Amino acid sequence: MRNEKRQSFEAKESTVLEALNEAEREHWLDSPVSDPWTRSAAFVLDCILVFLGVTGISSVCSALGLYLSSVPLQNAPAWSLPLLQDPLFAAAALAVGLKITFVYFYLVWSLTFAGGTPAKLLFGLRVIEDHSGCFPSLPKVLFRLLIEIGFFPSMALAFFDKNRRTLHDKWTGTSVRKVEEDP
Amino acid sequence: MILLVPIRPEVPKFHRPSWAPAIFTLIVMTLIFIVIAPVLQRDVEYIEAFRSAQAHGEFPTQEHANAHLKQRPLLKISIAPQSWDLERLFYSNFIHGSFFHLALNLIGVGAGLRLCSSFMPFLCSFAIFLFGGSLGLLSSTLLARDPQGAFIPHVGASAGIFALMGAYYIYNFHFRTTYFFWFPSKRGLISLRTNWFFFIDVILVELLLSAAQFFPQRIDSVDHVAHVCGFVFGLCLAIGIRYAQGWPEFLQSRGEFLYWTAFLKPSFRLNGFDPIRGPIATFLELLEINSYNDLLKLRLYRHATKYLSAMTEEEMEEAFLHLTPTFMRLHPKAVGAFLRQVLQKDRALPLSWLKRVPYDCVILVSRQLTSTESEQVLLYRLVIAYRNCHSGKERFDKKLSQLIQKLETAMSKQDSA
Q1: Residue A14 CB burial class (10 angstroms; 0-12, 13-18, ≥19)
Q2: ipTM, 2 decimals?
Q3: pLDDT above 70 (res B245)
């Protein structure tokens, strides 16, 4: 009996939560498209944060490479010998892997999980699909990123388009909305 | 730190740090640079002559070379690992090797002194800069292991800058810092949490690079050890000063601290302190001075959640005044718990608050009121009250009516099941 009651509460909670989530998506669809200046500011901040992250990873791996270079081979455990034979290459490879992972999480995963990169979230912006109000799917985000990189100057379209949308917004059916009203 | 320049703690306008101490110090440092420019020039010429002589094999051993390097002009006013004293240690904080070195450090000194002026008088900040910086430089010289660097001068204000950053980190640890990121509009400012972002931006990379500095192949010629040690000494000095001042952790700005020390603490001693009503009145008074202080708000709402019946209507009204959209977005759980209590005790939600709270904040807080059936009833009441406040606005009416309908459907779905 107690379990049934708990299950009923959990089920009700999930439907109430679903109702709230649906209301939130409708609110996002109703929110105005972000002005190009706020988008540009978010873009600049994203560039800075990505640069800091990538530079930090480079510094970590350079320091690690230097450390590995100073470890005498005779004292090293057997499993580390392949690394120590060319420590700088190992450190460089690690740097590349970490940078790719960082950039993936920063630019791709954040859009599918939270609807925006950290800078966009800080400015109260969300990237949503125009037909559903949901966060874009992974293929859509990747396609969006490819268009952004391939047709980089088209980002200026947001200043001239009457709907303030860029090429990568139009081609993926997404838009950047200002969902948090400024106090 | 150059791309994202910390310019002030996030405080109300009248608490914003002053530029005057920073400008004064920048002028002094620039004048010092101009005055010692001839010494720098002589040093450059001396080193060029030394390199030329070394290329001709005039210094067969490192000892011979060091004996010659010991006489370089810059070492008369600065320190090196094997040539230092207290007087030159202090001077080294104000010496820079080039105009570029000076320019970068001027930005850092300006930012650091300005940041710290929110919490302490100029002489205190300057003392942290001087002592923290000197200790940082000294640590770097004592820890230097490269025999070829025995007489390379360690100069620059950067250890002092990091000492100021360390002091700022302690004083503003629980609060936010406003950064400038070179964007040409008012959007070029952003506020980020000091405790994690400031640490990453200012010191994390320096920690790693300072470790790398101990290896024979250096990554660069920047003295990262001095930066890290300066930061640590700045932290320690600030901890000591705060302890001596008796600065409570929930106070952010100097204005709050002075009010606390001059008015509140004496009145507690004189009139006693009611543990239930006392915090409510105290936190509300302090929030009048700094309404950006989220730590105060958290304490207020947590206390009010426990002792809501002790709050008068005027205090409720004032407490809701400080329930801003930014605070609600950052702390939805605490706000949800407070609102749950308010609704449970049938206390009225102020109309002025309902009118100004944005819709996305209502959704955020509503998610905290879904755990039990009784909470969902409270949630329903909250949304109804919000809708009644915004009736007449067509866009809002439609959105809220739809939300209410969805909630009614969701709540009755399981009942019918």
Answers
A1: middle
A2: 0.80
A3: yes
